[in-house]
Design brief:
Layout (H helix, E strand, L loop, with lengths): L9 H10 L8 H13 L4 E7 L3 E8 L8 E3 L4 H7 L4 E4 L12 H4 L6 E9 L2 E10 L7 H23 L1 H7 L10 H18 L4 E7 L2 H8 L1 H18 L5 E6 L2 E6 L4 H12 L14 E7 L6 H15 L7 H12 L2
Antiparallel strand pairs: 1-2, 1-6, 2-3, 4-5, 5-6, 7-9, 7-10, 8-9
Helix pairs in contact: 2-5, 8-9, 10-12, 11-12
Length: about 350
Amino acid sequence: MATVSSLNDPRRLRELRVLAILDTPPESDFGDLASLAAAVCRSQVAAVNFVDDERHFTKAIVGKPEAEGGSVPNELSFCALTVLSEDGVLVIPDTHADERFSEHPLVTGGPQVGFYTGVAITSRGQRVGVLCAFGSEPREVTEAESTALVTLARQAEGNLELRRRNPELRQLTVTDPLTGLANRTLLFDHLESALAARERAGGEVGVLFCDVDDFKAVNDRHGHQIGDLVLRDIADDLRATVRAVDTVARIAGDEFVIVCPDVTESQLTEIVERTARNERLLPDGSPAPRLSVGAVIATGDENAASLLRRSDLAMYAEKTPRTRSAAETKLAAIAASSR
């Protein structure tokens, strides 16, 4: 079986980007397939997961609804192993009796996987996901169950092909439904394009990672409806702050990222300073929470995931007690994180 690093195949990752399936809301077509997989395999849990270079994303799941939209690192993912398997099928009747998995964290803890069966989902020749079923008790998987799971995986592939051919659906799947900003999928697409352009033509690529301070307190005090309003206001402010070529994305509940291609350090500094301003007010007239912003500039042959992680770390450094002016702190963060 190939190693986890084989999941970095650029052709496979490009197909995932084209599909724009990662980090998207639930869809009934995939939910129905998970339900059918659970029924035909007589399993407690069944799921449709899509596997990128770092983790599998749970698009649909039955039996563990709290896991929908979540992820598992590839180092722990049975689905990642299914993608890497020789024929795209992985069957483990008894994880406890299999020395490869008897000490696996998801066997000894968590969902306590006793048996697992999965079939790779392919799009344009690339294995991008898995339809799987598993349960806590070891048991044999019958030939009829395996055949049915393969058939359902082919239906999932048909769903992906329709998705690929429908631009309107793609637009919905790369947009954050609350704010209308780009989502994580489109963010990575634009960031990788900016880094590729930097390699070809030079110039700098800057990334700002923004986190809303004490956002939980807003939800607790004013309710989620006001919290959503705050997020939409922040999204509008960020749109007005950036240049036309920049990309603003919401990648998690109160986390925003700005990608600035072909940017100078002085331009990035100006964007950071504008982003740091907070003139928003809550309905009761009190100031809305401000943003902590970490800013970095790409160095060397840094990839998108590494650059985003570094900007996240810079943002957390920014959340330390502020003894300097906001602008001074932002400028220091840029200088420190770009060394």
